[in-house]
Design a protein that fits this description.
CATH topology: Aminopeptidase
CATH class: Alpha Beta
Radius of gyration: 16 Å
Helix content: 25-40%
Bound molecules: coenzyme A
Largest sheet: 8 strands, mixed
Distance between the termini: 18 Å
Strand order of the largest sheet: 1-2-3-4-5-6-8-7
């Protein structure tokens, strides 16, 4: 089992308790290790559909825009696709907490393999009230672990060039950053994964 607080990427995080699993098997096999008031980081499951819908609906317009680079609202079909993933070419991890006795989603990071060379596109979003508390580092580190375990060779993504949080998070985890040719408002992020 991985406990992210012990990983080298997480040494200066705020000291929130957490449980961390990158496989469903790991998640299911260790209920006794999971505290009820902890941040749980685990692979997404089909029954996360309603949690994901609520999470997306509660995002501020700014956060939703930074994630999708547009003001549109995701459709029910997209929410279905995002929670019923095909593990042969996709991976996704969610962060949840139990609030008022209900498990609620506070972040999600995902990748989709785009070619046969083992390159995948990734994206991440953290609930507004949790941004800046170290959760982005935890969740993206978990996604990187999952991608590495799944044989992904490279993670790529893009962000608006004024998204200081995402640029700082990407730098912190070792991504290389480059402005999109001909569209400097977009910055491309790339991380090569060694196995
Ligand atoms: C971008 C995002 C994922 C970062 O996650 P987060 O939980 O807020 O970030 P963390 O608290 O883990 O901090 C990560 C690093 O970014 C820095 N950071 C976070 N927000 C920042 C901000 N607004 N300005 C400057 N630096 C910031 C932190 O200081 C930290 O760097 P450090 O470890 O060197 O100090 C989150 O803010 C978010 O969901 N934004 C909206 C959606 C989005 O932009 N997604 C990216 C497009 S794919």
């Amino acid at each position: 089992m991985n406990f992210l607080m012990n990983s080298t990427t997480a040494t200066s995080l705020v000291n929130l308790p957490s449980f961390y699993a990158t496989t469903i098997e790991e998640w299911r096999s260790a209920p006794e290790d999971r505290g009820s008031n902890e941040i749980q980081v685990r692979p997404i499951q089909p029954d996360d559909f309603e949690r994901e819908r609520e999470f997306v609906e509660r995002l501020s317009p700014r956060t939703a825009y930074q994630r999708l680079m547009s003001a549109r609202k995701p459709s029910t079909e997209e929410l279905m696709r995002w929670t019923h993933i095909d593990r042969s070419h996709e991976g996704a991890v969610v962060a949840t907490v139990v609030i008022d006795g209900r498990e609620q989603q506070v972040g999600v990071a995902r990748y989709v393999v785009e070619d046969t060379q083992g390159e995948a596109d990734f994206a991440i979003v953290i609930a507004d009230e949790w941004q800046g508390s170290g959760l982005g580092i935890r969740l993206l580190s978990a996604l990187i672990d999952l991608a590495r375990q799944s044989g992904i060779k490279q993670l790529s993504g893009s962000t608006l060039s004024d998204n200081r949080g995402m640029l700082a998070l990407a730098r912190r985890l070792g991504f290389s950053l480059s402005k999109e040719a001909g569209a400097a408002i977009v910055t491309n992020l790339r991380l090569t994964l060694e196995s």
